């Protein structure tokens, strides 16, 4: 379909499909072997009390172990359930595909004994046993409401414990480097590149989301569900997949990964065990406007423009030699000359559990800012 906007030919360049499956991620048999390019997820955190119930429903022995104050057994049984999901992740990933797992360790007092339950290292062991490679992991430094909260004996030595102020994003790859052989794969890879200055931030092993401007879901749901911020799957999808790939989240929760997949022009599949979340997920997707998501892309372009301006004005820096003719902007390296960030034309709900997102070749513009500016102008007339 071709239509004109401000004299420019616009056409639909892509359609992405998003499926929500209510069911246990231990059995994702509807997904074919070697069909998923990227997994981005955050499971229930073993030994964090808010997840005791849902974990116990998956294996009654977990409940018994907790009732018997056997922390180590409960920890192991919970991880045995997650292990089944990781085996499925290994099965469905393509060779060279990535799995990015956001997890926090747990601290808990059982039988008056305070202890750390190291979820991240238990999950690393599980993936290594499945034959995946562990690549450098990311520490996500969380904004804590109580930075000076003391654990244990306060100011008295030997009985005080450090406070956990970070979570992990564990990075695994199935097999060796993904190969891009066909012309289509090579083209999609070039178009999916990110800016040089984004790479410098995204590929740091410490993430700090202070200053994240995008909020795409409602905060009450977020609180109740331990949803991760949109920025987390958004970065990971850009870092480890191509446009047109399929992203799987086996623990979908409120659907943040699906929304990030829509924003980044990827297909997605999400599993969620709790059917009461279906309405929350669909409400969240329906409440996310295409303007909000296009604005995120437009802001990336604006930030790049600002970066280039500052760099050009700095006489101590070398001249910028490369140019992206689609974005009509200079770029730092030849790898960025084909970056193309398309605009979401429509997000439609096809049925109770499926959405389609449609993209045009238009350059994303910052519609929200524009609307605000127009309103402000009207106020001053
Ligand atoms: C930490 S939350 C994920 C939050 C999600 N990242 C978000 O942004 O909303 C974990 C989710 O996994 C779901 N869950 C737990 N066990 C599951 C299983 N075996 N299969 C599928 N979903 C499961 C829980 O109901 C919960 O919604």
- Please report the total strand number as a whole number: 17
- Average pLDDT: 91
- CA-based gyration radius: 23 Å
Task: Look at the helices and sheets and give the structural class.
Answer: alpha/beta
Overall geometric form: globular
H-E order: EEEHHHEEEHEEEEHHEHHEHEHHEEEEH
Main sheet overview: 11 strands, mixed
Specify the number of helices. Answer: 12
User: If classified by CATH, what would the architecture be?
Assistant: 3-Layer(aba) Sandwich
> Bound small molecules, which ones?
S-adenosylmethionine
Residues in helix, %: 25-40%
The level-1 CATH class: Alpha Beta
CATH topology tier name: Rossmann fold
* Oligomer category: single chain
User: In whole angstroms, how far apart are the ends?
Assistant: 40 Å
In CATH, the homologous superfamily goes by the name Vaccinia Virus protein VP39
Strand content is 25-35%
Number of separate domains:
1
Low-confidence stretches: 211-216, 373-381
